[in-house]
Amino acid sequence: MNKEVWLSPMEAVTDLAFRKLCINHGADMTFTEMIRADAIVRGNKVTLSLIDTHIPLKQGIQLLVSKPAVLQKALQKIDFINIIGVDLNFGCPSLDVIGKGKGHALLKRLTRMRDLLFTLKKYSPVPCGIKFRLSV
Ligand SMILES: Cc1cc2nc3c(=O)[nH]c(=O)nc-3n(C[C@H](O)[C@H](O)[C@H](O)COP(=O)(O)O)c2cc1C
Predict the structure, then answer these.
(1) Which residues in the chain show pLDDT less than 50?
(2) Which of 1, 10, 50, 101 has its CA 20 to 30 A from that of 95?
(3) CA proximity to 116, closest of 61, 60, 74
(4) Residue-wise pLDDT tens digits, 19-58
């Protein structure tokens, strides 16, 4: 069986240096921390700096989003150089995130989740997926 080791996205942890370290120690795939898609669309400089994919690594970005139109705009704005995957965060349990209908809250918003997935599949130029919790 082909086994792969993937580094989970972790806020304030999985920056470029940490991802490179993990690749050097055998990780097969890594991710940025969750990046807020609406802030990408607004051009927020701090948020854009989280897309720190300056060197070729086995790395994807994780996006936090609840609106398909925002996801579409963010995917069209991101420079996909050195990014080989996109993951949507459907699991973050933070009250701040859930209160905005994002992260884990999407497991109770199935129509919205479906619309996000269709948008992701249509507009992502790279393979994509989701990370979610097993229960609501
Ligand atoms: C400090 C920290 C930050 C995290 N940030 C994210 C995140 O940005 N996106 C995400 O999907 N999960 C995030 N997680 C959850 C992890 O990706 C992972 O799912 C969780 O730690 C469970 O994995 P484990 O059982 O191997 O510890 C975070 C976890 C920690 C500890």
Answers:
(1) none
(2) 50
(3) 74
(4) 999 999 999 999 999 999 999 999 999 999 999 999 999 9
**61 CB-near residues (< 8 Å, 6+ apart):** 31, 32, 35, 51, 53, 78, 83, 85, 86, 87
Q: What pTM was computed for the model?
A: 0.96
Is 128 in contact with 101 (CB distance < 8 Å)? no
Provide the phi-psi class of 82: left if phi over 0, else alpha when psi is between -120 and 50, else beta.
left
Say how many Å lie between the CA of residue 134 and the centre of ligand 1: 14
Closest CA relative to residue 93, chosen from 115, 64, 117? 64
- For tokens 């996000």, the residue is 116
User: Which amino acid would we find at residue 3?
Assistant: K
112 CA → ligand 1 middle, Å: 23
- Within the chain, strands assigned E span 30-36, 59-64, 85-90, 128-132
> 10 CB under 6 A from ligand 1?
yes
Can you list the domains of the chain with their CATH numbers? 16-127 (3.20.20.70)
Cα of 8 to ligand 1 centre, how many Å?
Answer: 6
Q: What is the pLDDT of residue 3?
A: 93
